[in-house]
Amino acid sequence: MEEFERKNHWKKIYQTKQLHEVSWFQPNPETSLSFIKELNVEKHAKIIDIGGGDSLLVDHLLDSGYQNISVLDISASALERAKLRLGERANKVTWIVADIANFKPTEQYDFWHDRAAFHFLTKAAEIESYLNTLKNGLNKNGKLVVGTFSENGPTKCSGIDIKQYSESSMSKHFNQFFKRIKCITVDYSTPFETIQNFIFCSFHNSQNIA
Predict the structure, then answer these.
(1) pTM value?
(2) CB-based contact 157:116 (threshold 8 Å)
(3) pLDDT tens digits, 20-54
């Protein structure tokens, strides 16, 4: 799917469905929060949430005292909904409207979080671009967590083809630049009472590892 089509697709989704009406809605993003705790992400760390949309992760991070949060999404509508929900607290967040397939970061981050944006990139060139962006956008001490549909998960999301991953295939991509910390599989129950199997992997920037 080309960038223009992708933008229009997500614009329509966020203009026609409420937060709790999408399959990825999580009132408590416990897996992501657990990784953040395990990785000892400091309160002043520069955090970017890729494909964050209007998810509630940013709310939980603010509640926990994190001070330097950026949320990136292809849909301006999704980010506007998050801003509206957060009210004055939205001013504490940097909001970035961009397609991660061609995002050019202007700073380096300490922690990169991506719950299910990566698996929408099905072309080799898009995956390579993502990895190069991540390499340039993560500082030498940085850590990252990426979640995707596993090989036991769905083959589509929101009507779009996705790319499934295993621990091996995730590591094959990310180990080019980063050192794997761990991978786990998680069964996520959607608001529609269906089960989706995810794989989450954490990595450390290998530039700082002997």
Answers:
(1) 0.89
(2) yes
(3) 655 555 778 999 999 999 999 999 999 999 999 88
The strand pair at 156-157 and 160-161 is best described as antiparallel
> What are the DSSP E strand ranges found in the chain?
46-50, 68-73, 93-97, 109-115, 138-149, 156-157, 160-161, 178-189, 195-205
At residue 208 the predicted structure's pLDDT band, cuts being 50, 70 and 90, is: very low
In three-state secondary structure terms, 4 is: helix
Query: What is the distance, to the nearest Å, from the Cα of residue 56 to the centroid of all Cα atoms in its chain?
Result: 12
CA 206 to chain centre: 20
| Among candidate residues 156, 163, 151, the one with its CA nearest the CA of residue 198 | 151
pLDDT at residue number 36: 98
Closest CA to 190 of 50, 10, 27: 27
